[in-house]
Amino acid sequence: MHTQAVRHHRIQAGGRDLFLREAGPANAPVLLLPHGYPCSSFQFRRLMPALADRWRTVAFDWPGFGYSDTPDPAQFAYDFDAYENVLTAVADTLGLERYALWLHDYGSQIGLRHAMAHPDRIAALIIQNGDIYEDVLGPKYKAIQKYWKHKTPQTHRPLEDAVSEDGFRHEFVGEVNDEVAARVPPDLWKLHWPLMDTPVRRQVAVGLMEKLEANLAWFPRYQAYLREHQPPTLIVWGPEDGYMPAASARAYLRDLPRAELHLIEEAGHWLLETHFEEALPLIRDFLARHLA
Questions:
Q1: 82-102 pLDDT, tens digit each
Q2: Phi-psi region of 129 (alpha: psi -120 to 50; beta: other; left: phi over 0)
Q3: Closest C-alpha to 21, from 284, 39, 189, 38
Q4: pLDDT per residue over 159-186, tens digit each?
Q5: d(CA 1, CA 214)
Q6: How far is CA 83 from CA 63, 77, 182, in A?
Q7: Among residues 63, 101, 105, which one has the least CA distance to residue 200?
Q8: Any residues with CB less than 8 A from the CB of 229 and at least 6 apart, and which?
Q9: If residue 106 lies in a helix (H) or strand (E), which one and from where to where?
Q10: Cβ neighbours of residue 197 under 8 Å, at least 6 residues apart?
């Protein structure tokens, strides 16, 4: 069996039809990889085979993203709680009882809700550009914050405009220098945007930005979970991130003083695309010590 090859299939989990990627031996320690925005499990296509000699990696597409189904919004809430239920359903369906959890972008909010609900399952955390500290949010939050403060069609328009092929492109390459941007394959937005360009999926993406406001109330709860449970944590971070700059990474040390923090110079939100060779040894070393 080619355990280092990434395997692609579909599963039924929590009543949802989901697209899933797996690599590594079935009986190996597990790293669970919920994805962020604006992407899908595709963002882990390099990481998974690079870990598959020692670990089982599992990534899947959220409902309304990638190759997973798009439930009727009347039947699925498309909020962070609903997505946490999906994450739990995936783990339960696959029989995963204990695992490390990757926290990136929206996946950090969903993943921490999952960790709070199932603390005994969490063997370790890898945090990669996922923000939970309101006082160090980056300047790119200004447009969303303006909408939160004054909900008008004018302030809502930037959220709508962001959900476009050009908006997706900017998320992937708009913050790093030209040399780093050249390492980012255009497949990330050229292939993903056609999958997202439906009325329901566009509204799902805009709606998640709207719901970030309510999610702020969860930030102290996420922090309390970290303080109480002190999971072994690797923070590997691209500081060239307008939403989550270096200060957002350092803030985790308030609650996780023993966390291992690595700021990768010139990297941004998508460091697995641009600085994979620098990140991989850090990830493997951490998992070797905490997910054996």
A1: 999 999 999 999 999 999 999
A2: left
A3: 39
A4: 999 999 999 999 999 999 999 999 999 9
A5: 46
A6: 8, 9, 33
A7: 63
A8: 115, 119, 122
A9: helix 106-117
A10: 165
